[in-house]
From TrEMBL:
Top-level taxonomic group: Eukaryota
InterPro entries named in the record: DNA/RNA_pol_sf, Rev_trsase/Diguanyl_cyclase, RNA-dir_DNA_polymerase, RT_dom
Domain Reverse transcriptase: 51-147
Protein name: Reverse transcriptase domain-containing protein
Length: 156
């Protein structure tokens, strides 16, 4: 069973969860679902980001335990820097909330549900906290920019 108990949230945390839930709804990353559906649920967790801001993740540890690891290679920073050593120009693209760039197929959606004081929400785009999300995003970037990478003028 993947169902996890909800964590108690103090008022400050509840306000931050509300802010993130509303943002995810506006971005079409999640949608509200009914309470009659029998689903596996988890609770949202706020992670403090390097800049002091928060990121909302689901506590998907139980799901991740049963997920077969995707061994798609993630580039190492020193390797990427070596490739840029003789570059004349360097620019940076930022995939805002990278995991959310990938859609989720209907069957897995039933496993990607969070519950909080605002209700139940189903992820329709890849959430943070899923074991294979980084590999999936890297594969997507490598596919989209395949030509540019092969020509040697882009490092992903």
């Amino acid at each position: 069973m993947l169902r996890r108990p909800t964590y108690p949230a103090i008022l400050e945390t509840r306000k931050e969860i509300e802010k993130h839930i509303n943002e995810l709804l506006d971005m079409d990353v999640i949608r509200m679902i009914g309470h009659n559906e029998i689903v596996e649920i988890t609770t949202p967790v706020l992670i403090t980001w390097h800049d002091g801001n928060f990121r909302l993740c689901g506590d998907f540890r139980a799901l991740n335990k049963y997920t077969k690891a995707d061994r798609y290679p993630i580039p190492r920073i020193p390797h990427a820097l070596d490739k840029m050593e003789k570059a004349r120009y360097i620019t940076k693209m930022n995939c805002t909330k990278g995991s959310h760039q990938n859609g989720v197929k209907p069957n897995p959606m039933k496993l990607l549900i969070i519950i909080c004081h605002m209700g139940r929400y189903e992820y329709i785009r890849m959430p943070f906290g899923i074991k294979n999300a980084p590999a999936h995003l890297q594969r997507m970037m490598d596919t989209i920019f395949q030509e540019e990478i092969l020509e040697g003028w882009m490092v992903v």
